[in-house]
Amino acid sequence: MKGTKFQLKVWNYLKSIPKGTVKTYKQVAIAINKPKSARAVANACAKNPYAPKIPCHRVIRSDGGLGGYSGFGGTKTKKKLLKKEGFIL
User: Which of 35, 41, 60, 76 is 20 to 30 A from 70 via CA?
Assistant: First the structure.
């Protein structure tokens, strides 16, 4: 994988989020010991060239909104992937 040290840290964490569950950008930031980096986590997700293999679609906004999706098809695909995994939107 190619990315910054921070991006790699985020992307590696994303691989640990089980199918059918979601985390918020803030929860991911806390999990990687960068609790004030929710925006940077969102940015790392947005720059993820390995979607959906690295499941950035499992990360949503704290207000329950989907946020963005870097993979083909954007948020439409994000919704489809989450539904397919059994997550109720």
Answer: 35
